[in-house]
Model the fold of this input.
Amino acid sequence: MSLYRSVRAVTGASGDGHIDWGAVTEAAKAVTDPGTVDVSAAERRAYAADVGDARDEVRTVTTLAFDLPERVEVQNRHHWLDANVETFERVMAPLGEQMGAMPGLARVVNTGTMAFTLSFLAEHVLGQYDPLLLADGEEHALYFVRPNIRRAADSLDVEYERFRRWIAFHEVTHAAEFGAAPWLSTHLETAMEEAIDTLTSGGIDRESLGQLDTTMTAVEGYAELVMDRAFDAEYADLRRKIENRRQGRGPVQTLVRRLLGLSVKRRQYERGKAFFETVVDRQGMTAAARAWDDPESLPTAAELDDPDAWLARVV
Done:
């Protein structure tokens, strides 16, 4: 790793856009240890088995009809960076087009900020279901960042194979949501585009941002619920250890996670799961799956805190 090479890439950011994405990739990789992805054929088969078993169990628990993405990749951190730089560049392209040419200093600051963000995420993401938003014609993908999964399992003092399988179940649940609701990607893309359009005009589209937050709260909450019910082994100790780890983070990492909005993601997990647990307690898993019928079936922000109102409206 080389901080000097990272700084040099950022300060050398060029072009007419608001971000030099080539420099983002170079700078982020320079300060990110890729880790190894030199795994045996047996371990690759184990990943495939975990994903296949998760698909079968999630189908049984949810009754949702879905298929796995064709792209299921065991990655190192640099692989994850490559995939996600492409996603961020694609999602933020409309903002760049609206802003036009940027002064050099602003481009350097934007490039450095994005490189720092992606480097931090690359060190911490365990698995990712990637709906490839705004990527016309491309299949969705499923990533497992093996060095992070291995490191997390060691730090939590849990068996790697069991922890890896738990992560697979969580990510496959996201595949179930997007597979059973083909409208979901478009729904998210529309809200993102509307928010970006308003931002380029100097305003804040609180309605679109609220819609994004509400949708992702439902997505993350349902995944947490299904993961618990579909996983075919004990998991209470895994949740407890992860929660203890979150609470034990140092002040610098806590601050960074707040600045990147990761604390919001945790609240989405908790709020969404509480909503769906109440729905299931009232009327079962089939009723919970109705959230993916169409965009109008998603819970509203108010209904997330009042599951009975959602049940009365949708079920």
Notes: The longest helix spans residues 206-230. The CA atoms of residues 16 and 101 lie 5 Å apart.
